[in-house]
Amino acid sequence: MNAQELALSSSRNPRTAATDANHFILTFENNRFASELFGQFDQNLKLIEERLNISARPRGNSVSISGDLVATNQARRALDFLYDRLQKGGTVEPSDVEGALRMAVAADDQLSLPTMERKAKLSMAQITTRKKTIAARTPTQDAYMRAMERSELVFGVGPAGTGKTYLAVAHAAQLLERGAVDRIILSRPAVEAGERLGFLPGDMKEKVDPYLRPLYDALYDMMPGDKVERAITAGVIEIAPLAFMRGRTLANAAIILDEAQNTTSMQMKMFLTRLGENGRMIITGDPSQVDLPRGVKSGLVEALQILEGVDGISITRFKDVDVVRHPLVGRIVRAYDAQYVIQDESEQIDR
Q1: Predicted local confidence at residue 320, as pLDDT
Q2: Exposed (0-12), middle (13-18) or buried (19+): which is 165, by Cβ within 10 Å?
Q3: Distance (Å, whole) CA 317 – CA 113
Q4: Can you tell me whether residue 138 is helix, strand or coil?
Q5: What angle do CA 242, 245, 250 make, to 5 degrees?
Q6: Distances 275 to 147, 247, 282 between C-alpha atoms, Å
Q7: Which of 60, 201, 251, 271 has CB 3.0 to 4.6 Å from 276, enough for a Cys bridge?
Q8: What backbone torsions phi and psi does residue 154 show, to the nearest 5 degrees?
Q9: Three-state SS sequence of 311-335
């Protein structure tokens, strides 16, 4: 790379001045956005330094980046993407930086997605509602978000903390705001109550709320609270346990089944066949956390086997590396997975 100006000097894009192959200076035209990009006390730049093992030193609205050639280019692509996000009215938190870095690294891996541009800017799938814009933070999230756009039935399976449910609800909210569907239907199997909710106090909403709280949380994150309440009252957003789906045909709706690993085979078949005209269905769950009685096969596990390769159905499988919560969560998932492998091997030897 020769020493020269590499980018346009417009107010839209940062300018890149290269001094040698492993060192360049990024200059951002908007001082306020540059400050937000670098983070309070330059915490975002420190995170980039830590994750990529490079040097990222700020000076005014510029940052001097040096280190390994591949890593410095990953930093540049991540910063370009995040700056563009700020220009479009978004915000940049440390979790957004983590996501941009994951995607930048993935773009250079042999297993990178064909939808990502390797040399220029990052191209991440996004979900946009009036309240919030969410960008993919891992390659698997990117694939999942694109699958929800193109497929009528999508399975998102994998460990906790990978964003399966959150992104599904966000996508449903986006479809509702676009007018692509008339309503949102959110459901979960109330396994803890054995699907027998009558003994619980209160009306139906009060009975099932404890089991559906994660879905509520995601909804309120995507839409203004008053609009969520009005939509629930008007039946535009319906939240119900799986047991109450029987006998219905759900047309013109975005339908989400969460914690699907706790469905039986018959429950899963019943739910899948509820899909009506212009319906979009998303099913999420973690096959490693089945709470069904011993000997009862998970409807999710069976469905994944039966429906693999069926036209119109997309299956996205998340792994521990896709965990976007606290980094410790990913390590916990890996530790448990390793223990399960040891137990399985021990049981096979005993047999």
Answers
A1: 84
A2: buried
A3: 14
A4: coil
A5: 130
A6: 17, 11, 11
A7: 251
A8: -130, 130
A9: CCEEEEECCHHHCCCCHHHHHHHHH
The residue count for the chain: 351
d(CA 327, CA 324): 7
Q: Please tell me the distance from the alpha carbon of residue 139 to that of residue 149, in angstroms, as a whole number.
A: 16
In angstroms, what is the C-alpha Rg of the chain?
Answer: 23
Alpha helices in 16-138 (DSSP H): 31-38, 43-52, 69-87, 94-108
Task: Order the strands of the 253-257 sheet from edge to edge.
Answer: 237-241, 183-188, 253-257, 280-285, 153-157, 313-317
Joined tokens for residue 330: 């990913």
CA dihedral sign of residues 301, 330, 141, 192: positive
DSSP state of 312: T
In this prediction, residue 114 carries a pLDDT of: 45
Closest CA to 25 of 13, 16, 33, 34: 16
Q: Are 88 and 96 in contact (CB under 8 A)?
A: no
For the stretch 227-282, pLDDT in tens is 999 999 999 999 878 878 888 888 999 999 999 999 999 999 999 999 999 999 99
Concatenating the DSSP letter of every residue in 91-112 gives ---HHHHHHHHHHHHHHHSTT-
Query: Is the sign of the CA dihedral 212, 217, 222, 227 positive or negative?
Result: positive
Token readout for 99 is 């996501």
CA-wise closest residue to 119 among 53, 70, 86: 70
Rounded Cα gap, residues 232 and 216, in angstroms: 11
Tokens representing residue 303 in the block: 């469905």
pLDDT digit string (tens) for 276-321?
A: 999 999 999 999 888 888 889 999 999 999 999 899 999 999 988 8
Which of 14-23, 172-181, 193-202 has the lowest average pLDDT? Answer: 193-202
E strand or H helix at 55: strand 55-59
What gap in Å lies between CA 275 and CA 153, rounded to an integer? 9
Residue of 81, 71, 84, 102 whose CA lies nearest to 30: 84
CA atoms within 13 A on the CB side of 273: 8
Is 189 within 8 Å of 259 (Cβ atoms)? yes
Q: Are 64 and 25 in contact (CB under 8 A)?
A: yes
Among positive and negative, which fits the CA dihedral 250, 143, 302, 329?
Answer: negative
